[in-house]
Amino acid sequence: MEEMSSKNFIEEAIEKDLADGVYTHVQTRFPPEPNGYLHIGHAKAICIDFGNAEKYGGVCNLRLDDTNPSKEDVEYVDAIKEDIKWLGFKWDKILYASDYFDDIYECAVKLIKLGKAYVDDSTAEEIRRYRGTLTEPGKESPYRNRSIEENLELFDRMTKGEFENGTRVLRAKIDMSSPNLNMRDPVIYRIMHQSHHRTGDKWCVYPMYDFAHPISDTVEGVTHSLCSLEFEDHRPLYDWVLKELGFEHPSRQIEFARMNLNYTLTSKRKCLKLVNDGIVSGWDDPRMGTLCGMRRRGYTPEAIRDFCDRIGVAKANSVIDFSLLEFCVREDLNNKAPRAMAVLRPIKLVIDNYPEGQVEEIEVEINPQQPELGKRTVEFSKNLWIESEDFMEEAPKKYFRLTIGREVRLKSAYYVTATSCVKDENGNVTEVHCTYDPETRGGDAPDGRKVKGTIHWVSAEHAVDAKVNLYERLFNVENPSDESKVGSFVDNLNPDSVETLTGCKLESNLKNIKPGDTFQFLRLGYFCVDKDSTPDNIVINRTVALKDSWAKVNK
């Protein structure tokens, strides 16, 4: 029996178009504007655009929407390419909206000649006022009925640079009483005396996105133009442009719901403010919702693709819980990240009855999820580092870690019993003394006695020093962009979004780690070596804790 699999509405539409002969192949495109870095919301669009092309044996182009030269930068173009490659996708061609400027311009002239476009001398405020509202029809511009000849002459003069910015625009002539505001004679070209990063000073008029988009798609050969839900109201304009211009094989626009992730900011404008105001260290700050920030934090492309697959493709917008993304990251790293021991807030543990100068090699698994990787060895000696929270001089009843008179297991090593501790002038414990049972090597007692607590450790003599950044979510509120309810987004920053620990101790196997390496630090979470880390100054970022502690703290 043929296996049945459910399909989302995009796949159903594509398969119907192929079956009906509307298209003979599938071609998509991912069209970001190079005015900022890609964020987690873009990851969903990338997976949909590239994923559907892959599924149906087609191609997907990367097309940079560079129709607004005042906000674009080559830096962003390079970053976009890097993020797509990192996610594991390959484009067929790299294209730019500016590749089609000549085609788009000719289409604008054609619309004028067809009596479907006119030059408007109204100010931006007048155009806005004449547009009408959702309940009231718009009002026709006094320049709407200019002759074709006059419009051609004025548009030519606009192109030659005879007019200042904002003094004239070219508008499509559609219907000022349309219930869809996007169809009320939208602006399709504006004057902008601005050098372009690819075309230089060739143009001083630039097309609006809603006009450039359908023409670029169709000239390029895109069959299915997949875009987010906010463009649904723009689809009638998309179809109108292609119909009026008489394209023989027009592209088809299909919309899907955007990814809205709580506790995350994805507005490029607001992200830029965070960067420019020094609130974060840059676009790749590990607390940012950008793909480069997540990469620096240690999120894997496989986890992000799994996350996008789990949330699926929907027609209605919804808010996704950040904890689902963290779950996907944990699940991926649990399978692939090698284990290591690290002590982030160290205190000294001295085993008084351990032979002076003796060093043993203890075998521990590299990754229990991949037994074929075998084991690694770590040094064990008389003086160890342990976590400060793993010792209490006077412990409550349900505290099962190290305390005076109690026996615990040192992971994969020995049973030890605390006997005393040393404190500084402020009463903080700096050193714990204990004894060990040499018969318990490997972490088990031959007489069968059990202990309830197991703690990790690092040999003091062999430890590697590191700085560790413990990251939490950047915002305290679920929707930092909703300024109507919670004030400005900068008023809702989490003051505890990062804690930097110095003097952390790592096992000696980590002395040669490289930027991008990931690990599970036993009992602590998943960590990634920072891009700025060096052998002499190791910097490590916490990717995600072993368990979701945020939900408990913020109940």
Report on the structure:
- The protein is of the alpha/beta class.
- It is built from 14 helices and 29 strands.
Q: For the record, give the distance between the C-alpha atoms at the N and C termini, rounded to a whole number.
A: 49 Å
Secondary structure category:
alpha/beta
Question: What fraction strand?
Answer: 15-25%
Shape summary: elongated
- Poorly predicted regions are none
Q: Strands of the biggest beta sheet: in what spatial order?
A: 12-27-28-29-25-26-13
Number-wise, the strands total 29
- Mean of all residue-level pLDDT scores: 94
What composes the largest sheet? 7 strands, mixed
The total of helices stands at 14
As a percent range, the share of helical residues equals: 25-40%
Using the CA coordinates, give the radius of gyration: 31 Å
Descriptive terms for the model:
555 residues, 29 strands, alpha/beta, seven-stranded mixed β-sheet, 14 helices
